[in-house]
Design brief:
It is built from 10 helices and 7 strands. With 250 residues, it is α/β, with parallel strands linked by helices. The chain has a single domain, classed as Alpha/Beta hydrolase fold, catalytic domain (Rossmann fold). It has a 7-stranded mixed β-sheet, sandwiched between helices. The radius of gyration is 18 Å and the shape is globular.
Length: 250
């Protein structure tokens, strides 16, 4: 876990499928100027050891909570989650509502929309795993991606068999995620910011399942939803706005 900055509430970032904590380096450097922010890698990603437990939101929310406590981080938290990580963040807010000051969902997915990798995708992952000991994926440039600031780390960590194994484990849990999330009927008056393409924001099911009052919900349209500089800048703006309505620790 990498925490920088001072202030409250503490921003905690939950990554999407196949993403790393350093993917948020541009956001972290800016947010840390006005409050504390923590990024981390879920079990099996980055420098984190794999977990033997099922990869469903209820388990991953508990793991994040245990990590925050072990790191000595104090609530309240503003949870910022991208893509698949939105489900973990929502579950965390459900399990520990008194520790969460608000949610920022960046192109968050809904449990009903999850689809497992097709067999061709899984086969490609297996090919990558088999050829990694020989350095072929790195040689062929199959690993990496993202901004230049983190290019070396991205290549090193995506060219690891454990990385692909973790993605496949999370993917294999998709059929169980819907039932896992069904325990959540409402997040009451939890402040919420949703950043997503305009077409998705206009869909009534985007935030309706959370039953969040409209006066605490901000919808930020974005038609370029790759996790790039533009999206992160909007996430930063949303965080600043949300921090104005979140309770501050004395």
């Amino acid at each position: 876990m990498n925490c920088t900055g001072k202030g409250s509430p503490t921003v905690v970032v939950e990554n999407g499928l196949g993403d790393f904590s350093f993917d948020w380096v541009l956001v972290q450097s800016r947010v840390s100027r006005f409050t504390r922010i923590c990024t981390y890698d879920r079990a099996g990603y980055g420098w984190s050891d794999p977990s033997p437990k099922d990869r469903v939101p209820s388990v991953m929310a508990e793991e994040l909570h245990a990590l925050l406590r072990a790191a000595g981080e104090k609530p309240p938290y503003v949870l910022v989650a991208h893509s698949l990580g939105a489900l973990n963040a929502i579950m965390f807010a459900h399990k520990f509502p008194h520790e969460v000051a608000g949610l920022v969902l960046v192109d968050g997915v809904r449990a009903e929309s999850l689809r497992q990798l097709p067999w061709r995708g899984k086969l490609w992952f297996r090919v990558m795993q088999v050829t990694m000991p020989f350095g072929i994926p790195r040689w062929r440039g199959w690993c990496g991606g993202g901004p230049a600031e983190t290019a070396r780390e991205k290549v090193a960590l995506t060219c690891r068999s454990e990385f692909l194994k973790t993605i496949l484990r999370e993917d294999s849990a998709f059929p169980r995620v819907h039932s896992d999330m069904n325990v959540i009927s409402s997040l009451a008056d939890m402040p919420l910011v949703v950043i997503a393409p305009l077409a998705r924001l206009e869909a009534p099911l985007m935030v309706a399942p959370l039953n969040v009052p409209g006066n605490t919900t901000q919808l930020v349209p974005d038609d370029h939803m790759n996790v790039d500089v533009r999206t992160r800048s909007q996430a930063k703006a949303a965080l600043i706005s949300l921090s104005c309505v979140c309770p501050r620790s004395k």
